[in-house]
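Structure, all two chains, one model.
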Amino acid sequence: MEKFMLIFQGQKAAEQASAEQMQENMGKWMAWIDKLAKAGKYEGGEPLLPTGKIIKGSNKTVTDAAFAEGKEMIGGYFIVNAADYDEAVALCEDYPDYAIGGSVVIRQIQKMEMPA
Amino acid sequence: MKINRCCINFFFFVCEIDSFETASFYRLNYNFQKKIALDNYSHIAPTVEHLFRQEWGKLVAVLTKLFGPQNLQIAEDVVQDTLLLAFNNWKINGLPQNPSAWLFTVARNKAIDVLRQQKRKDVFSKSMAPLLQSEYTLVPTVQDTINTNSINDDQLRMMFVCCHPSISAEAQVSLILRTLCGFSVTEIAKAFVSGYDTIEKRLSRARQSFRENNVQFELPPVAELESRLDNVLLAIYLLFNEGYNSTQHEDLIRKDLMNEALRLCEVICRSPVVDHSRANALMALICFTASRNDSRLDANGNILLLEQQDRKKWNLELIQKAVHHLEISADGKTLSKYQLEAGIAYEHARTANYQQTNWNNILRCYDLLCKFYPSPVVELNRSIVISKLRGPAEGIKAIEAIAQIASLKNYYLLPATLGELHRQLHHYETAQQYFTKANSFTHSASEKKLLQQKIDQLKD
C-alpha cells in the first residue's frame, strides 16, 4: 500500500456560500471522510488557513503570502492509502467541491526505503 | 378587550386527538442527523440540522447588540467570516464538542479586531461607545456582550429591531430571514419568488433606515411594547404563511420557512417580558396549521380540501403542542385574532372526520372574529360555515351581505366559493361562470387544476 497526499485547491466559492450551503457542503465532506475511514483509506488531514509566509533567497527574506487569491489557494490536505494512482483517483470520486470550482491535486508520498 | 374566560372554554373540551395515529414524524429543529461514526473520528458529534443557520441568527443578534443596529452590515460580515472559518475547519476536523462556544469565541476575537481598527468609536451604539473607547474596557465589554447568557432576550430584541415601524412589512420579513434565520439574499429571493436585486435593495434600505432613525438595540418602551409586539407577531405569521400557502416553490424551502416561524415564535413564548397570550395563540395557530401539512396535497401534488384530507396524516405531535400553547394563551383577559383562528383549527383537529365537524363552535369563533377583527376575508369564511349549518342559499346571502365585498374583487376564493355554493344548489351554469372567473384570478398551478376539476365535474 502506498501513501498519497490529496491537496485541495480553489474553494473560493465557499466565501459566498449561505449558512445552509456551508452546512450541506460540510455534511458531504464528513460523509466522504467517513467513507474513506471505513474503507481503511484515511490516514488524516488538516485544513489550512488562507494566510502564510514565504521565505526565500540567501537573505532568507520573509514575505507575507496571500493564498486567498487565485485558483491555487490550498484549503487543506488529506493523507490516504491507495495501491496506486488509479485507486487514489478513484478515492477522489466523492470530493464535494468540483462543481464550485475546487480541484484535487494528488501526489504520491515517497517511501523511505533503503536501496537494495 | 376584556372577555370572560368561559367564553373560550369551549376550545378545551375533551380532547379527542387520541383517535389519531401518530403520523409521520415532523421533526422541527430538534432533528439530529444520523451520527457520523468514524473509526478514528470519535470526536465528531451529531450535527444539528440547520446548525449554521441557527448560530448565524444568535451571532448576528449579539453582534448587533455590540455594534448597534446602524452597523448591521458589519455584524453580518463578522458572522459570515466566523462561519466560513468554522466551515473550513469542521469539514475536515469534524465538529468540536461545543460548536456554539467555538463560534462565539471566534466571533469575539473578530469583533475585537473590528473595534480596534475603527478609531471612531462613536459609530457604534450609544450605550457601548464609551466602553469601547479604551483598550482597558474594550475586551471585557466584548466578552460580556458576545456570549449566550441572554441569547433568548437578544434574539427577541433583534426581532423588535427588524420589525421597527420605519420598515415596511415585507422588508421586516426579509430582514428577519436574513438576520435571525441566516438566509442568504438568494434564498430569500427564492422564498418570495422575487429577484435577487429586489431583495438586496429591500435589505440595504432597511439597514440605511436603522442609521437614519437611530434605531437602538432595545425593547420598545412599555407603552409601545404591546403594539410593537403586534408587528413582530404579524411578521412571523407572514413568514409562516409564505411557507404554508405558497404553492409556487419547492417543498424544502417551504418547510424551512415554517420551521423558522415556529422557532422564532417559540423564542417569544419563552420570553418573560412580552405578552404571552398572543404569542402562545400564534404558536398554537402555527402548530395546528403545520400539523396538516403532510395531508393537503395528494401524490400528484393536487390540493386536497379539508373534507378530502386523510386525518391520520395529521401530525399528532404538533397538534398536542398546539393544544398546549392554546391553553397557555387563555389568560382570560384578551381574546386575540390568533386565538380565535387557532380555536377554529382546534375544532377541526379534535374531530375524527369532516362529517362530525362542530360547525356551531366554528361559527362562534367566526362571529367573534367578525365582531372584534372584522375583515371581508373573515366574513367570506364565515359565509361558508353558514352554508354548512343553514344550507348553500343562506351562504350565498351571507356573502352578498359582506360589508366591503368590493375589496375582494380580485380574490379568487370569492368566485370559487360562490361557484361551489351554486353547484350545491344545482345552478350549474352560474357555478361554471364563477369557477371560470376564479380560475382567471389565480396563478397557482395546483389551484387552477383544482378549479378545472370542479368545472369538469359540472359537465358530468
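Residues 222-245 of chain B form the longest helix (24 residues).
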